[in-house]
Amino acid sequence: xxxxxxxxxxxxxxxxxxxxxxxxxxxxxxxxxxAESTPFTKDNLVASDNIQSNFQGETFFGRHSLDYKWHxxxxxxxxxxxxxxxxxxxxxxxxxx
Length: 97
Hints:
This protein has one domain. The chain is mainly beta. It is globular and about 45 Å long. The two termini are 15 Å apart. It is built from 1 helix and 6 strands, in the order αββββββ.
């Protein structure tokens, strides 16, 4: 990610990246479903190259497991939003990314 001229200052402290998702209109079908992070381990994640025109990195996909616990909002409205953590630079927190 590009943080501009203040990148060095930002990287001296804790860095958390969050994602927000909300629908543009009420969701009647095909809601966004999220799995709890606790059953995920490095063994059940598959790495995949993420190649963009200005970025190269890696993204991960979870292998199928009956242990996953899924959640979704039924009839999610535009004023209802998911906020979920993508990354945390603090190595002591349970789900860093």
